[in-house]
C-alpha cells in the first residue's frame, strides 16, 4: 500500500495528514504555525512526516495566498510574514523529506476533492466556490486543476461586480468577496448598525423582517448568482459546487443562488445550470492535497 501526505499551512495552525490510495485519512497531527519563521514550521512538518514510517509517494500542500503556483512559491500573504514571503516552500520542504512536494491554494485543492470524490465526481468540468471567511474558487477539468498562464486562474475575490460597492481588507470595492463572503455580510451589517457576530445572524434578522439585513443577504446571493452566470457563459462547467460556512449553514442559500443564476444565462443554457452544496467536510482540502500527490506520482 502506498500513501501520500496532505499539508495545510494556515496563518494560525498547520495540519499534516497521512492518506491511503483510497483517500482515507489514516492519521493526522496539528500544531501552531510559526508565522514569522518558516524553518520552525517546515521542520515540524518534516518530523511528523518521518514519524508516519511508511511508503510515501509525495506531498500536496496548501498555504495562504497569494501564491506563485508555477514555481511553488509563497508570495506576500498577510497572515504569514518575515521569511515566509517569496519562499519557495515546496522546494524547501522537499529537501527536508526527500520526496516531491506540490503547492496549491486551498480552494483549488477543495475543488479537486469535489471533482474526485465529492459532488463533481461524475463530471469533467467542475467549478467550485468556497463562500466563507473569504470567497475562493477552483476550476477542475478532467480531474486536473486549471491554473491559467501564470497560476492565477480562479483568483476571483477581486472580480468587481458592483460599482462603488463595499470593500473590506485588501479587496477592491465591489469585489465579489466584499459582497458575498461571510466576512463581508457580517461587516456590512455591523457598519449598518446591526448587532451581529456572523452571517447566520444576519440571515436570521433578514428572515425576521429586518430590511437592512434582507438587502445585505439579497446582495450576497444576487451578485454571487451574477458571477456564476458569467462563469457559465465563459467556461460552461457541468456543475458548480458551493462550500464554506455560508453555503453549508444558511438554509436555502444554495437553492436561491441556483434559481437566480438560471435567470442570468441564455434560455437554451438554463437546463445546464446546476448549483449544488458540497457534501465534503472540512477535510476537503486535505483530501485534494492527498489526491494531488498521488496523481503527480502516477
Automatic annotation (TrEMBL):
Q: Which InterPro entries match?
A: ATPase_NBD (IPR043129), ROK (IPR000600)
| SUPFAM superfamilies, per the entry | Actin-like ATPase domain (SSF53067)
Q: Can you tell which superkingdom this protein's organism belongs to? A: Bacteria
Q: Which family does it belong to?
A: Belongs to the ROK (NagC/XylR) family.
What's the name of the protein?
ROK family protein
Tell me what organism the protein belongs to.
Eubacterium ventriosum
The organism that produces this protein has a lineage beginning with: Bacteria, Bacillati, Bacillota, Clostridia, Eubacteriales
Amino acid at each position: 500500500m502506498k500513501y501520500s501526505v496532505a499539508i495545510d499551512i494556515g496563518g494560525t495552525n498547520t495540519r499534516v495528514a497521512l492518506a491511503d490510495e483510497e483517500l482515507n485519512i489514516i492519521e493526522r497531527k496539528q500544531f501552531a504555525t510559526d508565522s514569522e519563521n518558516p524553518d520552525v514550521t517546515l521542520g515540524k512538518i518534516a518530523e511528523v512526516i518521518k514519524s508516519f514510517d511508511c511508503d510515501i509517494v509525495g506531498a500536496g500542500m496548501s498555504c495562504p495566498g497569494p501564491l506563485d503556483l508555477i514555481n511553488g512559491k509563497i508570495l506576500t500573504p498577510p497572515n504569514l510574514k518575515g521569511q515566509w514571503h517569496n519562499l519557495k516552500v515546496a522546494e524547501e520542504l522537499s529537501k527536508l523529506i526527500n520526496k516531491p512536494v506540490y503547492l496549491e491554494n486551498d480552494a483549488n485543492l477543495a475543488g479537486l476533492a469535489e471533482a474526485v470524490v465529492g459532488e463533481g465526481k461524475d463530471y469533467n468540468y467542475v467549478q467550485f466556490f468556497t463562500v466563507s471567511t473569504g470567497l475562493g474558487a477552483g476550476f477542475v477539468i478532467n480531474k486536473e486543476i486549471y491554473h491559467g498562464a501564470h497560476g492565477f486562474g480562479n483568483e476571483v475575490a477581486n472580480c468587481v461586480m458592483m460599482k462603488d460597492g463595499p470593500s473590506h481588507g485588501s479587496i477592491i470595492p465591489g469585489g465579489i468577496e466584499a459582497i458575498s463572503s461571510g466576512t463581508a455580510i457580517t461587516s456590512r451589517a455591523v457598519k449598518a448598525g446591526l448587532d451581529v457576530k456572523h452571517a447566520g445572524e444576519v440571515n436570521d434578522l433578514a428572515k425576521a423582517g429586518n430590511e437592512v439585513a434582507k438587502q445585505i443577504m439579497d446582495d450576497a446571493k444576487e451578485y454571487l448568482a451574477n458571477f456564476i452566470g458569467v462563469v457559465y457563459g465563459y467556461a460552461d462547467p457541468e456543475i458548480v459546487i458551493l462550500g464554506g460556512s455560508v453555503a453549508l449553514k444558511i438554509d436555502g442559500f444554495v437553492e436561491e443562488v441556483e434559481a437566480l443564476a438560471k435567470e442570468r444565462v441564455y434560455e437554451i443554457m438554463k437546463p445546464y445550470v446546476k448549483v449544488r452544496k458540497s457534501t465534503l467536510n472540512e477535510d476537503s482540502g486535505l483530501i485534494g492535497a492527498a489526491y494531488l500527490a498521488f496523481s503527480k506520482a502516477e
